[in-house]
Structures are given as structure tokens and as C-alpha cells.
Design brief:
alpha/beta, binds FE2/S2 (inorganic) cluster, 2 domains, seven-stranded mixed sheet
């Protein structure tokens, strides 16, 4: 197994500035980094967030502003640590290290982003980083229920993207995100970037239209985030998600899930 230690661990203190519930199960948290990170993150990099009394967990960067040292993450409260995070009050202190993982900026002028649930986090940062306009960046955001979509379309628009929604209720596409994907004409897009839970990505691989390059941001178990523990080994691919990912091309993603 290839193991390359790229990062030494240096924790930064961060202070919670705002905690906004943007849908029935997503919270957007903005922190101020008290020690300025050395470099700005590039999408789809992530941080290890240390939550006092709980654990360190990987979180995608959903936003960053180097001028006022603010960093945003998107939290879906599913376990004890994320539930605690979603309930935190402004002024709380946490720790983080990063930015981790490999950046990838797709070449081209027009992109389709597909995000399921909390997979929206790295897509939000892509929108900001690429300086998106409604012509350049289209975002298909899918959840099961309308309430889980919440305010996400407004957030996507604010960052320059053109939002489309998919859910089993009142959405632009009624049905699953995969149903919606198969109904989109991919002509004119330079790349499709997909971010979401493993089940969504596995199911999508069979339906991929390979006339356009597809890239997948994978979510698997990450413990150390810096290539030390091997927990994020991608089996047949002989790669580590935390070092070589989190984004992989179609061929590599097929090998991960085959
Ligand atoms: S080696 Fe990737 S999480 Fe530890």
C-alpha cells in the first residue's frame, strides 16, 4: 500500500460565529480561525475537526474567506458528535487541522454538480472558488423529502450557481436524484462532479453517460486524515482516500466499488 505523509499535524483553534439550520437536517456552521491557516483550501479539500469531549471527524470545506479568516462546514446530525455540533452555540471553541486531501479544479467553462444531502458541502466551495455564474455552474441537489431541501437552492444561487432540486415531493424533478440525472441532457457540460453518500454513488455508476468526464467525491471512513492509519484504504485501487482523494475519476471509482 502506498502511504505518503504529506501533512504534519498542527491544530488551529477556531471559534463558532454562526450556526444556521438551512433545512430539516442540515446546519451551516461558520467559524473564525484564530490562527490564520497557512494557505487557503482548494476544493474538494477537507479538515479534521476536533470536537472537545467527542472525537476528531472529517468535514468538507463548504466555505472559506481568507480576508476575515472564516471557514464554513455543513453538518448533518446523525451520530453523537455531529448532533452535538448541530446544537452548539456561538462562541464555542473547537480545534481543526488541515487542509487535507488533494485539490482538483476541473478544466472547462461549464459544469454540472450533483449533490446528495450533506454531499452539498464541497460543491458549495466549488461554486465560490470557481467564481460561478448561473450559466457556468448548474447544481442538481437531491434529498428524499422537500423539507430536506430547505434553503439550499437560495444558498446555491447566492454563490452564483443555478439550482435544480430533486425529491419525492414538490421539487424541479419529482423522484430520486438518479432519476433526475438520467433526464438531464449533458451536452455542453465540460465535467460532471458528483458528491454524496456511497449508496448514491454506487447506484449512479451504472447510469453514467461517459460522453462527459465524471468525477466523484467519495465519503468513506477517515480516522487520521494524513495517511498514517490506513483506515481509508480503497482496497483494489491501492490508494488512500485521505491522501489521493477525496475526488476520483470514473474509472477509479468503479474499481473502488467493484
Ligand atoms: S490513512 Fe487515511 S484516514 Fe488514516
Amino acid at each position: 500500500m502506498k502511504t505518503i505523509l504529506k501533512h504534519s499535524i498542527r491544530y488551529y483553534s477556531i471559534k463558532l460565529l454562526s450556526n444556521n439550520k438551512i433545512s430539516s437536517n442540515l446546519y451551516l456552521l461558520m467559524f473564525k480561525t484564530l490562527d490564520k491557516p497557512v494557505t487557503e483550501p482548494k476544493p474538494p479539500q477537507f479538515i479534521m475537526l476536533w470536537v472537545p469531549g467527542y472525537e476528531a471527524i472529517p468535514m468538507s470545506v463548504a466555505g472559506f474567506n481568507g480576508e476575515n479568516n472564516t471557514l464554513s462546514i455543513l453538518v448533518k446530525p446523525v451520530g453523537p458528535t455531529t448532533k452535538y455540533l448541530a446544537s452548539m452555540s456561538c462562541g464555542s471553541y473547537l480545534g481543526m487541522y488541515g487542509f487535507l486531501g488533494r485539490e482538483y479544479i476541473p478544466p472547462g467553462n461549464k459544469f454540472l454538480f450533483i449533490a446528495g444531502g450533506s454531499g452539498l458541502a464541497p460543491i458549495l466551495y466549488y461554486l465560490k472558488y470557481l467564481g460561478c455564474t448561473p450559466h457556468k455552474c448548474h447544481v442538481l441537489f437531491g434529498c428524499w423529502r422537500r423539507g430536506e431541501i430547505g434553503d439550499a437552492p437560495r444558498l446555491i444561487s447566492k454563490l452564483g450557481g443555478k439550482p435544480y432540486t430533486a425529491c419525492l415531493g414538490e421539487c424541479d424533478y419529482q423522484g430520486t436524484i438518479l432519476d433526475a440525472y438520467t433526464r438531464i441532457n449533458l451536452e455542453g457540460y465540460d465535467a460532471v462532479i458528483v458528491s454524496g453518500p456511497p449508496e448514491m454513488i454506487k447506484n449512479m455508476l451504472d447510469k453514467v453517460n461517459n460522453t462527459v468526464n465524471h468525477y466523484f467525491i467519495l465519503e468513506e471512513t477517515i480516522k487520521c486524515g494524513i495517511g498514517l492509519c490506513g483506515k481509508c484504504s480503497l482496497g483494489k485501487l491501492d490508494k488512500l482516500l485521505c491522501i489521493d482523494g477525496p475526488l476520483f475519476n470514473y474509472e477509479d471509482t468503479v474499481r473502488v466499488y467493484s
